[in-house]
Amino acid sequence: MENKTAIAMTQLVGFKEYLLERENAPATLEKYLRDVRKFFAFAGEGSEITKEKLLIYKERLMEGYSVSSVNSMLVALNQFLGYMGLGRLRLKRVRVQRIDLEHAQKALGKEEFRRLVRTARDCGKEQLAMIMETMCATGIRVSELKYFRVENLRSGIVKVWNKGKYRMVILPALLKNKLLLYIRRNGIKSGMIFCTRSGREKDRSNIWREMKAVAKCAGIGGRKVFPHNLRHLFARSFYAKTKNLITLADILGHSSLEVTRIYASDGIEKWRREIEQIGLLEGTT
User: Fold this and answer.
1) How many angstroms separate the CA atoms of 225 and 213, rounded?
2) I need a surface site. Which of 24, 34, 63, 177 has the fewest CB within 10 A?
3) From CA 211, how far away is CA 199, in angstroms rounded?
4) How far apart are CA 101 and CA 269, in angstroms?
5) 86: β partners
6) How confident is the model at residue 264 (pLDDT cuts 50, 70, 90)?
7) Angle at Cα 171 formed by Cα 261 and Cα 193, nearest 5°?
8) Membrane-crossing residues (predicted)?
9) How many helices (H) and strands (E) does the chain have?
10) pLDDT tens, position by position, 168-197
11) What is residue 48's DSSP assignment?
12) 102 backbone dihedrals φ, ψ, rounded to 5°
């Protein structure tokens, strides 16, 4: 028997309170509300929420968005359905190949990363160079830079709280020494290591913009250069060395090994190289 619950814009008020009670991050809260409004606009206020309508909406999303974007929007919609007591109508995420091909094409190489850091220093952007090295050497998210404080440097362990999860980030010895030298040179006595001149935490978009400018000077494609790609490079490098996916998931703070598997993949070019090595065909004249 179909649930006759109808769509009403007023439901978003209660949904917002529900998300607040679940301690969702502000950015997550706004995204969920935005994604649910998108479904409301598709279905129309006053219409019934049925499985058939939800499946049609999912198909419509697949026509206009990437798989990762569709799955992201389905997560938000499923949260709303749970809030409404319609958990049985939840939609399954779109399944993809183990390797995300789009991600593979954007992969930043180790030498490209090093060239990016060198160029940043040559351009007098020491803070940006240190931020990139910190992210790439630890696999942290850009939003976790604020937990890197003078007070916890000497222990070599930074305690991070993000996405409702607590974990410890271990600093490699070389990074620790670089950070100690950086704060000494810049007279940073306490508090956040990476902040604006006014003392506020660095903004994601500002870091991205600085990276793009440096990438242009370094001759590196702009599609490869964004903060989160440093986390991907860490994951691929760690897995290539250790083949330990479970430990990598713990380091990155992932609850799903499937997400970690995508991060750690060398991508389509590795597939291509391995296929070329099979050598089934004879050479042509």
Assistant:
1) 10
2) 63
3) 21
4) 9
5) none
6) low
7) 115
8) none
9) 13, 2
10) 888 888 999 999 999 999 999 999 999 988
11) B
12) -65, -40
At position 252, the amino acid (one-letter code) is L
DSSP labels, 215-265 = HHHHT--GGG-SHHHHHHHHHHHHHHHH--HHHHHHHHT-S-HHHHHHHH-
* CA distance linking residue 196 with residue 74, whole number of Å: 36
Amino acid at 171: L
Length of the chain: 285
Residue type, 278: I
- The residue whose two tokens read 């000497």 is 154
Give the separation between CA 110 and CA 112, rounded to whole angstroms: 5
Tokens linked to 244: 């330990």
pLDDT tens-digit readout, 206-259: 899 999 999 999 999 888 899 988 988 888 888 888 888 778 888 888 766 666
**For residue 103, what are its two tokens?**
């991600």
Model's pTM, two decimal places? Answer: 0.60
17-42 tens-digit pLDDT: 999 998 888 888 999 999 999 999 99
